[in-house]
Structure formats: structure tokens, C-alpha cells
């Protein structure tokens, strides 16, 4: 998925979605903020999302609202809120990057360390240059987006579920680097999946809970649903039809099977805005520090993408998606503003238009950052 398409300024239409219902968030918001969030939610529904939730941090306060379409069979809207569980998708890569940054500051590894896996997992090379952990975390490893054998025997509705460590070993033996490591931005789920395995071989999910989500009190950000989370989970959709969630036991460091809520994402974004108030300031600061330049509109920290705003400030962002969900999170440290939006439908960018959830998140952040 080409994340650079997110940089487009195209926005969804302003059509109002009938049946939208809003829920107040954790703080009282001004009319200006609530009206802007309402417009974004209306546009998300108009673009085809059955439900949407949007969370904002501004001036140290949080605001969350949800919207849902009227269902003809029930005559009412099913409205998500800050506690509704969505699949998060690739925003989860920033969690893996945070785990890497924590390991670096603990002295257990360093960013220029070569990617090392057990002997039966051959790491491809090109031009004599070994892939480093920093290459993986900045999408500059030269690895393709996916393993060459991922879709062999895969369920199209749950494409990672069948993939095993044995499959990964076989796939890596067939993998060729597209570019020399460290030279070119090329978005790679395989790369971040390998980063997770390099940090905690065959124990990525437990490692992420221990090093990142538990210390940050992100109780609903995990790859396995608890009974309580399952009761609050939205149903994913593709082209208007319900679809199953994605499951991944091997490349989950890429966020392919991560769940979360808007409430959790606001806690996470609050830590990004004020790292000094988090349990691991230095690691968070390291993830946001520019390390690789893709072009004049895009730089990479560890996991995070960094792009210029019209006023010269920096927008730090990541989006995500699975087979039935789309999400986007963006923030500006300079203004102390953050936005997250989650919808329970899958969508893809086109050659000339960003996904609605990305365009709406970007537009709202720009508006609030300029306010």
C-alpha cells in the first residue's frame, strides 16, 4: 500500500449522511471543534463507512464522537464510540517501532545492527549491504511489500492466517531485494513483520504488550480479542458486506492483526504529544526523529511518517487498514493537536485520490493546527 498517497489534499464531499448520531467524548468541546468533527464523520459515512469514530486532542483536552448509518432492518443507527473495538492495521507498526526504540535505549540492540534471525531464515542481501533494523523501521530495507509465497493457499478474506514460520523460512529463501538497503523508500509489511521477529522471535504479540501497550495503559490494543473486547467490536465491511477480521501469527509486527479503540489511540497520541509524561520519553522521541528522507514531502522516523503542513509545522502520521477496517492517526507536536479516525470498512487509495479516512484525518488536523 503506497502511504505517500496520503499526502494528497483531496477531501470527501460535504454531503450529509442521514441518520448520523454523535456521542459526546471525554471532554466538553467548543462548538467549532464539535462541528468540524461532525462534518468529518458525516463525510466518512457519505463515503460508504457503516460507522465511524473520531477522536481529537486540542489544548490538552480530548474529544471523541461517533456516527453510524441507519439500518433499514432495525430503523436505528449503530453508533460506535471511544470504546468500540476496530482493527487498527498498520498504525500498529509504530508500536513495533517503539519496542525497537526501547530496546535501543536499554542497550540490548542498536539501530545499525543487522537483521538477525535463526539460521533457517535466510536474510536476503543486495549490493553487499546487509539490512539493518533501522532500514526495516524506515521502510528502506529494499524488501518487497509481502513474502513471495504469502498468497499460496491463502483465504482472500484472511490472507495472513495460514502463514507459518515454516512458510516464512521458505518465502525468505525466494525473496529478492528490490533495491539496495538504505537507499529507497519502499513500504513493506514483510519488513516490519521481520522487525517484530528480530525483537522477539515467535513471541511478538507478548513482547508488544509487555514493552509498549501495557506500560502506556492501552488495554484494548492487542492482537487477540478478550471476551470484553469481542462484545464491543465493530463488524468489518468490504463494499457494504460484512467480512471477517484478519489474523496473523507471524508478521503481526506489521500491525496486520492489531485491534484498538479511539480511546486507546488518544492515550497513545497523548504520549506522542507529551513524551515527558509517558513511561519512556527517550524511546518515543527517538521514533519521531527524522532518520530517512524519501522526498521533499516525506521523511521517516521509526515507524512514523513525517510531512510538512502548510504553515511549516510537521505532521507526524500513520494510517492502517485490514480487510474490513480503515484507520488514520496524525498529530502536530508544535500545536499539541492530534486526530484519529477509525471506520469499519476497507478502502484503497487510487492513483489520484487518498482513502476517505486519510483525507478526512489530514484535513481535520490541518484545520485544527491552523486554528
Helix content: 25-40%
Poorly predicted regions: 1-30
Please name the CATH architecture. 3-Layer(aba) Sandwich
CATH class: Alpha Beta
CATH superfamily: DD-peptidase/beta-lactamase superfamily
What share of residues are in beta strands?
15-25%
Briefly note the CATH topology name: Beta-lactamase
Q: What kind of sheet is the major sheet?
A: 8 strands, antiparallel
Helical region count? 10
The side-by-side strand order for the widest beta sheet comes to 2-1-14-13-12-11-10-9
Report a brief summary of the structure.
It is built from ten helices and 14 strands.
List the helices and strands and how they pair.
Blueprint: H1 31-46, E1 51-58, E2 61-68, E3 70-71, E4 76-77, E5 86-87, H2 92-106, H3 133-137, H4 165-173, H5 189-199, H6 204-213, H7 227-231, E6 237-238, E7 241-242, E8 259-260, H8 262-273, H9 281-288, E9 292-295, E10 298-300, E11 305-308, E12 314-321, E13 326-332, E14 337-343, H10 356-370
Antiparallel strand pairs: 1-2, 1-14, 3-4, 5-8, 6-7, 9-10, 10-11, 11-12, 12-13, 13-14
Amino acid at each position: 500500500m503506497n502511504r505517500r498517497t496520503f499526502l494528497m489534499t483531496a477531501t470527501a464531499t460535504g454531503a450529509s449522511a442521514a441518520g448520523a448520531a454523535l456521542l459526546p467524548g471525554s471532554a466538553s468541546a467548543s462548538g467549532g471543534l464539535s462541528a468540524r468533527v461532525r462534518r468529518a464523520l458525516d463525510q466518512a459515512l457519505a463515503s460508504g463507512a457503516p460507522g465511524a469514530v473520531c477522536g481529537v486532542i486540542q489544548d490538552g483536552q480530548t474529544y471523541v464522537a461517533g456516527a453510524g448509518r441507519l439500518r433499514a432492518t432495525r430503523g436505528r443507527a449503530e453508533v460506535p464510540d471511544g470504546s468500540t473495538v476496530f482493527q487498527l492495521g498498520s498504525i500498529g507498526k509504530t508500536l513495533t517501532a517503539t519496542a525497537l526504540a526501547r530496546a535501543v535505549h536499554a542497550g540490548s540492540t542498536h539501530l545499525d545492527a543487522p537483521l538477525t534471525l535463526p539460521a533457517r531464515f535466510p536474510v536476503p542481501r543486495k549490493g553487499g549491504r546487509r539490512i539493518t533494523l533501522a532500514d526495516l523501521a524506515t521502510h528502506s530495507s529494499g524488501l518487497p511489500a509481502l513474502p513471495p509465497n504469502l498468497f499460496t493457499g491463502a483465504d482472500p478474506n484472511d490472507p495472513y492466517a495460514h502463514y507459518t514460520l515454516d512458510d516464512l523460512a521458505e518465502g525468505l529463501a525466494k525473496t529478492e531485494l528490490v533495491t539496495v538497503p538504505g537507499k529507497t523508500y519502499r513500504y513493506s509489511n514483510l519488513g516490519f513483520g521481520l522487525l517484530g521477529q528480530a525483537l522477539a522471535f515467535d513471541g511478538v504479540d507478548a513482547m508488544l504488550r509487555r514493552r509498549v501497550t501495557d506500560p502506556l495503559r492501552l488495554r484494548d490494543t492487542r492482537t487477540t480479542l478478550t471476551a470484553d473486547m469481542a462484545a464491543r467490536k465493530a463488524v468489518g465491511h468490504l463494499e457494504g458486506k460484512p467480512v471477517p477480521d484478519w489474523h496473523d501469527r507471524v508478521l503481526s509486527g506489521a500491525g496486520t492483526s492489531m485491534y484498538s479503540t479511539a480511546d486507546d489511540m488518544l492515550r497513545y497520541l497523548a504520549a506522542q504529544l507529551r513524551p515527558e509524561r509517558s513511561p519512556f520519553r527517550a524511546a518515543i522521541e527517538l521514533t519521531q526523529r527524522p532518520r530517512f528522507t524519501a522526498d521533499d514531502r516525506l521523511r521517516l522516523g521509526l515507524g512514523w511518517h513525517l510531512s510538512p503542513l502548510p504553515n511549516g509545522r510537521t505532521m507526524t502520521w500513520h494510517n492502517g487498514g485490514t480487510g474490513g477496517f480503515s484507520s488514520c492517526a496524525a498529530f502536530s507536536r508544535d500545536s499539541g493537536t492530534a486526530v484519529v479516525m477509525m471506520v469499519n470498512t476497507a478502502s484503497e487509495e487510487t492513483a489520484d485520490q487518498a482513502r476517505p479516512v486519510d483525507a478526512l484525518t489530514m484535513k481535520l488536523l490541518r484545520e485544527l493546527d491552523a486554528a
